[in-house]
Amino acid sequence: MVLLAVMVLLIASYTASLHTWWQQQQEIRATEAKIETQKTAIAELEDDAERWEDPAYIEQQARARFGWVLPGEVGYRVVDADGEVEGDVPQLAEPPSAKAPQWYEKLWDSTKVAGQEPVEPTAPAEGPSEPLLPESP
After folding, report:
1. What distances in angstroms separate CA 83 from CA 25, 66, 79, 90, 92, one per listed residue?
2. Which of 39, 41, 69, 117 is a Cys-bridge partner for 75, taking CB atoms 3.0 to 4.6 Å apart?
3. Which helix (H) or strand (E) holds 104?
4. For the chain, what is the mean pLDDT?
5. Most confident option among 7-11, 20-24, 80-84, 96-100
6. What whole-number distance in Å separates Cα of residue 123 and Cα of residue 130?
């Protein structure tokens, strides 16, 4: 009986250790997979950076993205009957918007308006002057 109790205690203690070992092995495999994914992404970025070192690639990107032409060349755009440009039209990115106010600017602004009277909302626009439903005869 004592031997059975000792065996149960040993199995219970080894089970917890085995469970911890198994979880650690899974974490190691997940981390190794993440490392491989990041190595692939780094290789792609390095390849992209290397391409941008080539003047021919830069010229090709400027032509494709921005529609640029070299001096002496003539650029054409096909315009349909509505006046819309047909095909892919390169667009420049939107300029960056105004910088968002910092937290301390918001705090200072809130202290400026704290003692002021609240601003009353403007009156809503008048409704239609005629009834929406026709009058019955």
Report:
1. 64, 20, 6, 17, 20
2. 69
3. helix 103-113
4. 83
5. 20-24
6. 20
